[in-house]
Design brief:
Elements (H helix, E strand, L loop, with lengths): L1 H9 L4 E4 L9 E4 L1 H15 L6 E4 L6 H6 L1 H7 L2 E4 L5 H10 L4 E4 L1 H9 L13 E4 L6 H9 L4 E7 L2 E7 L14 E2 L4 E5 L12 E6 L11 H7 L6 E9 L5 E6 L4 E3 L2 E3 L1 H8 L5 E11 L3 E10 L7 H9 L10 E4 L13 H6 L6
Parallel strand pairs: 3-4, 5-6, 6-7, 17-18
Antiparallel strand pairs: 1-2, 7-8, 8-9, 10-11, 11-12, 12-13, 14-15, 16-17
Helix pairs in contact: 2-4, 5-6
Length: about 350
């Protein structure tokens, strides 16, 4: 009957979205109307989206950010979307004022570029309820700049394979829980496990697993990758290392593939990057593990200086030594002109491994 036909189509593929490939080769995630629907429900409940909201869409539609972070939930709620063919900081700042945008979406790179634009200080952004930031953790100093502008930051978290709107940090908690991705959205199940598949206690680091009606069931034409990603109980292994505090707020520590071991100690690049990013002369930073005869692996930091600032390797080492454990301090620093990024603005660390001198 028609009802059976509807439910059949609800679970049928309607698009394939590829992962960003920041740490490996992109994989095609099979998306169904069911996934789109439940992601929209989760997003609407979390962000309180109504038909009165408005946003600017500039991310490519072959990326989950372009389709599913706000666009499909906005279509579902009849909210207004202003489309742009590509990111343009000055134009977006102008449109935020003229179109009275209520929710701003971006990644740390795009919000940083807007701050650097000479029109940022003059623009009236009072219509914006909050900015939703995803893709990767936003530097704490950048969060504070937007807060001073009167735009609260809602750090979000998710992935192409699940949602992608899985976690959200409410703007009221932006200061008290700064650095957190918040709590899981309503229909998202979570658990954090160690290398023995045992659930870890609060405060301990482990791999994040997700489950719910917005999770994928397969990668396109890649059964091996699917089986590695989804276990027999339907839990999706994200590959992200997280910890949970006593208030049940989650914090991303890093990617499982990015973690390296230096002298027997686990080093999570995100923790090192957050410290280095606070230096007044640093514009952008990315840290990777590099082979070392003595320590097994050591940190290698790629630094983009702010324009007009001089910063030496010795100065940065001293700064790091004063703000983190010695084993976390990178042993190598490379100053480059720009970090390699994908179309969504996310840093492509695999390019730093494959071609580390690009952009120097």
């Amino acid at each position: 009957n028609d009802n059976d036909s509807f439910h059949g189509e609800f679970d049928q593929p309607c698009m394939i979205l590829y992962t960003s490939g920041t740490t490996g080769f992109p994989k095609g995630v099979v998306i169904t109307p069911k996934i789109l629907f439940w992601n929209s429900v989760n997003t609407t409940l979390s962000l309180d989206i109504t038909s009165k909201d408005s946003m600017i869409s500039f991310l490519p539609l072959f990326h989950t950010g372009g389709w599913n972070v706000l666009l499909t939930p906005f279509i579902h709620r009849g909210a207004k979307t202003v489309f742009l063919p590509q990111f343009d900081a000055k134009n977006i700042l102008s449109l935020c004022e003229s179109e009275k945008i209520t929710i701003l979406f971006g990644v740390p790179t795009t919000l940083s570029m807007m701050v650097k634009d000479d029109s940022f200080k003059q623009r009236n952004l009072s219509s914006i309820r909050f900015a939703v930031v995803g893709g990767e953790p936003m530097p704490l100093n950048m969060i504070k700049i937007w807060h001073e502008k009167g735009v609260p930051i809602r750090q979000g978290f998710g992935l192409t394979e699940c949602g992608p709107n899985c976690f959200s940090l409410h703007q009221d908690d932006a200061e008290s829980k700064i650095g957190s991705i918040g709590r899981p959205n309503f229909y998202v199940q979570t658990k954090i496990i160690d290398e023995h598949n045992s659930v870890v206690p609060h405060g301990k680091i482990g791999e994040l697993l997700l489950k719910g009606p917005m999770c994928m069931t397969t990668y396109w034409g890649n059964e091996k990758a699917t089986n590695l990603c989804i276990d027999s109980q339907g839990w999706l292994r994200t590959g992200d290392l997280v910890k949970q505090d006593s208030d049940n707020y989650f914090y991303v520590v890093g990617r499982k593939k990015e973690m390296f071991i230096s002298g027997g100690e686990n080093v999570y690049p995100i923790e090192v990057e957050r410290v280095i990013a606070q230096h007044s002369s640093v514009d952008e930073v990315a840290v990777i593990g590099d082979k070392d005869e003595k320590w097994g692996e050591v940190g290698k930091a790629f630094i983009v200086r702010k324009k007009g600032y001089n910063l030496s390797e010795d100065e940065l080492k001293v700064f790091c030594q004063g703000n983190m454990a010695n084993f976390k301090v990178p042993k190598k620093f490379l100053f480059i002109n720009e970090l390699p990024k994908g179309s969504s603005g996310k840093i492509l660390k695999k390019n730093l491994v494959d071609n580390p001198k690009k952009g120097i």
